[in-house]
Amino acid sequence: MNDYFRKYKNLMMLTVFIGATIIALIPLFGVLGYVVKNGLSALNLQFFVNLPKAMGLPGGGMANAIAGTLIMVLIASALGIPIGILAAIYLTEYDRHSWLSTAVRFATDVLTGIPSIIVGIVIYTAVVLRMGNFSALAGGLSLAVIMIPLIIRSTEEMLKLVSHSIREAGFALGISKAKTILKIVLPTAAKGIITGAMLAVARVAGETAPLLFTALGNQYWSRSLNEPTASLPVQIFQYATSPYKEWHQLAWAGSLVLILMVITLNLVARYAFRSRSI
Amino acid sequence: MGQTLSVRQLEAWYGSNKTLKGINMEVASNHVTAIIGPSGCGKSTFVRCINRMHETMPGTKVKGEIVLDGESIYDQDPVALRKMVGMVFQKPNPFPSMSIYENVVAGVRLNGMRNKQNLQGIAEKSLRMAALWDEVKDRLNYSGMSLSGGQQQRLCIARALAVEPSVLLMDEPASALDPIATTHIEELVRQLKEDYTILIVTHNMQQAARIADSTAFFLNGELVEHGATSEIFTNPNDKRTEDYITGRFG
Q1: In what order do the strands lie in the sheet with B32-36?
Q2: I need a labelling partner for A66 at 20 to 30 A (CA). Which of A34, A53, A256, B31 fits?
Q3: CB contact under 8 A, A188 and B111
Q4: Residue A3's pLDDT is what?
Q5: Residue A217 · residue A238 · CB < 8 Å
Q6: Domains delineated in chain A
Q7: Are B86 and B165 in contact (CB under 8 A)?
Q8: Measuring CA to CA, which residue among A65, A39, A37, A71 is closest to residue A50?
Q9: Which residues in chain A are closer than 8 Å to B80, comparing Cβ atoms?
Q10: Is A166 in contact with B160 (Cβ distance < 8 A)?
Q11: What does the DSSP assignment read for A62-73?
Q12: Size of interface A-B (CB pairs under 8 A)
């Protein structure tokens, strides 16, 4: 009797788990499938090489938005990756337990969870209003602010995985602390650090809210980093909320490109730089 | 050539825990000195004081004096001191990001030697001294992690020798190894004393009896007895030493 109930309960729980997994996967694959289905039909070469065109003209594209996204992600990476990694080195290697590192760690935790629109509005007030115009620089800066805590956290975790005995082996050879960190500890953790950085890049590539406030958007090529710049997420937002069917099509195509960019970055980060052993 | 070490009134703390309580000891050059004693008796702390690694841990403190070749080690820069006092750790710890060759020359290369011929010469000489050359000469570019545990430990010994120290500290270098690898390490230690002063911490009394010229017995942070290995094991002066080596405790 007992045995029967045990097996029955086991089967019931298994059904619940499988059911929950399927329910969780429906929206995931639903989103992907929907974007692919709608985006693929609108995706063509013109999308990648042409500027947006006025309503009614055929052959509009998002070349400037793709370039704008790449430029702003590049600016964000150039600022965020070195600052994040260097700060993480300080926190793990030089100052693990002081009140300063505890405070910094707390701040990065809070910043990681902060809604990105808040970063946007801060950069808008602090940078855009002062410089007098929207720009790729301000956009890149806001993405960097989102990136830095992510990179600090992931780099810190990777450095902590490097065994203390590796550092001691370096010191015991008469190698200075700075060189031990730079030439022994960092290379040991390099793959994990790069993976973390790429995942952070992938995360900010799709950010929309902070760019609305900072880079704004542009229907043309930007001639300098100091003027409004188009980006894929913002362009998608504008096209998708317009009343025109052709623009909706382009928004789908843009979404597909953005998803592919993020997926590629994720895959490269996960497989090419997967660390074999630390 | 090895150097003599004299340790005077050495005291060391981990936080408020006093792990060494006034050690006085003379270590002869070109000798193997074994440090034996039960866990927690301060033997690891003792050797870690000699290359000033003990102080690198937060919350530690040292008092007293250690004189190496007529000069107090506390008057020297610790980074420079560690080039003269090499160390081999309990668990083999080759640098995971480096090849076998890079591991061996890490100490000299990261301290500025660039000449490739010199580096290769040093690598071969050190690997030969560590009795590893024949096993790895065809795969110097393989990762150091690709070696077996015993080979990794000899790689770490080669890495320590490449810096040309005069004193070699070994903190239970064979305790993580199988008996055959242990035999290799012990043979190696016997050969190395030609050129080095060797201090070896060991849990294994048979090992001390096999390889050490003199043996020091530590208990609760004190040096109970230090003398010729044959004396310590056959005719100890102190009752506590006798109890320990006959297996009555520890």
Answers
A1: B85-88, B167-171, B197-201, B32-36, B214-219, B222-228
A2: A34
A3: no
A4: 82
A5: yes
A6: 71-272 (1.10.3720.10)
A7: yes
A8: A65
A9: 174
A10: no
A11: -HHHHHHHHHHH
A12: 71
Residue A268: the pLDDT is 86
Residue in A266, A173, A211, A246 with CA at minimum distance from that of residue A72? A211
State how far the Cα of B201 lies from the Cα of B221, in Å rounded to an integer: 14
> What confidence tier does A278 reach under pLDDT thresholds 50, 70, 90?
very low
pTM of the model: 0.85
Burial of A29 (0-12, 13-18, 19+ CB in 10 A): exposed
Digit-coded pLDDT (tens) for A178-200: 999 999 999 999 999 999 999 99
Task: From chain B, pick out residues whose CB is under 8 angstroms from the CB of A168.
Answer: 53, 56, 89, 93
Distance in Å, alpha carbon of B219 to nearest chain A alpha carbon: 26
Question: Rounded to whole angstroms, how far apart are CA atoms B172 and B44?
Answer: 9
Could you tell me if residue A63 is left (phi over 0), alpha (psi between -120 and 50 degrees) or otherwise beta? Answer: alpha
ipTM: 0.91
Q: Give the residue on B whose Cα is nearest the Cα of A277.
A: B96
Report pLDDT digits (tens) over A22-49: 999 999 999 999 999 999 988 888 889 8
Residues in chain B: 250
Facing A169 at nearest CB: one of B58, B79, B89:
B89
Quick check: B107 contacting A, CB < 8 Å?
yes
- B99 touching A, CB under 8 A? no
B160 in contact with A, Cβ within 8 Å: yes
CA distances from A167 to A164, A189, B168, B189, B212 (A): 5, 12, 18, 25, 29
